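Good morning C.,

I know you're traveling, so I'll keep this short. The sequence:
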Amino acid sequence: MAERTHLEHFLEKAETTLEAAQKTFEDSQRVQEGDYGEYIQAQRNLQDLNDELGTLMHAATPEQRDQLHRTQIQVNQLQNHFILKR
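The tokens, ready to paste straight into the viewer:
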């Protein structure tokens, strides 16, 4: 079972990472190109987050797993946006 504080900390980190990646993606959609290095870093951050999600899901309770799964869906959707934009 994953510790509640660890899970809460991870979900806060996930939310922050998702918000930053979303902003980077939106910036890249504008007429002027965004910072390519920032774009690549956002993709790496999303992949790291997805990797950590997979690890946490193995130790989570069913309720925690549901919460983590919803976060994983958000991460995957944003990763797909980055890939399709390219």
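Safe travels,
E.
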